[in-house]
Amino acid sequence: MPRSILTVKCMKSSTPITETLRHISVDGVVLGYGDGKLKVLLRRESIEHDGKVTIEWKLPGHHIRSNETVEETAIRTLYEQTGMRNIFLKQFHVFSSLDRLHRREFDFAWIRKHGVGEWRVITVGFYALVNLKNISLADMSPEAEWREISGIGELIFDHREILDAALEKIRHDLYLEPVLFELLPDKFTLTDLQNIYELIMGRSVDKRNFRRKAISKAYIVPLAERQTGVAHRAAGYYMFNRKIFDKEMQED
Length: 252
Fold this sequence. Notes:
The chain is an alpha+beta fold. 29% of the residues lie in helices and 32% in strands. It contains 7 helices and 10 strands. It has helices at 70-82, 107-114, 159-173, 180-183, 190-201, 207-216, 242-251, and strands at residues 7-9, 20-34, 37-49, 52-58, 61-65, 86-95, 122-131, 144-148, 220-226, 236-240. The strands form 2 sheets. Strands 1, 2, 3, 4, 5, 6, 7 and 8 form an 8-stranded mixed sheet that branches. Residues 1-15 have low confidence and may be disordered.
């Protein structure tokens, strides 16, 4: 499948790593789809507070280095967490609340442990979309874990707000850009397409109407292939054609 024009490739800086900027960072909402489930990539953190160690979860992120752009930091961070060098990546918001690191007392324990930006950090939010079949678990950071998005509760700092803001942005973008297809394999069924749409939107849609609208789109191209080895009636496969989509967007 042709990659989106918003895809950013991982680049290595030609200059050595220098100073870490203490008060600006990036945080990434990485969504993955596989086996009919929508998941988000989270990072496990052990926080010591009042003599106890608790396991908390955060979005993957990092502070910006003085020889990096914001985009390069996001690319580097996601590569370190997933091992992927070619990920659909889009900046969607800047989070600058004065208390974003002060929501819970024991969050400060994590800040003190890492010693970066203790009082104020402005973070730039990116979202990334991947198909989980393209992810090798062996390449992932040992602290990283895919968690089903429907089961995500409280996160460290303001990261739950960042996750919710990313979902709202994706819901807006899917009407203007072919973002859903970044989550799907090269060939997919209409059931896959409807399922990922419903998971992103957080609501069910009428099956007959959805399929009628999907089939009417010239850029959703039927293939001469059907599922094999399934207990139910084999569904036909489709593919997304980027050239047709771009042409239709230019004509509108």
